[in-house]
From TrEMBL:
Residues 12-73 form the DUF6471 domain. InterPro entries: DUF6471. It comes from the Bacteria. It comes from Nitrospirillum amazonense. This is DUF6471 domain-containing protein. The chain crosses the membrane at residues 62-78. Keywords: Membrane, Transmembrane, Transmembrane helix.
């Protein structure tokens, strides 16, 4: 497994997006399902706005936890999210010499 200490913030954002989309697909949940109360912490969200926010993966921990609850995920480990890290390209692994 990749040394997770060297994963960039952008790589974590991409992994979070992929992880959340995978979790939603497994549960057959889409943004429309979780955008309205009581699914999303009692605060209605527009489906498109919610999708855009998830895609950017730039949100505070409270939003992330509310999203996990709305999707129906009781807990998530770092290893589960790390499985969705983007693959490094061969030319970046070898270094730019």
């Amino acid at each position: 497994m990749t040394d997770l200490r060297h994963v960039t913030e952008d790589q974590w954002r991409e992994a979070l997006f992929r992880f959340l989309r995978h979790a939603m697909a497994q549960r057959r949940v889409d943004y429309s399902d979780i955008a309205q109360p009581p699914s999303f912490a009692g605060e209605p969200k527009e489906r498109v706005a919610l999708g855009n926010k998830v895609r950017r993966s730039m949100y505070d921990p409270g939003f992330f936890l509310a999203l996990l609850a709305a999707i129906g995920l009781p807990g998530v480990t770092l290893e589960e999210v790390a499985k969705f890290l983007p693959e490094k390209r061969a030319d970046t692994e070898a270094g730019d010499s």
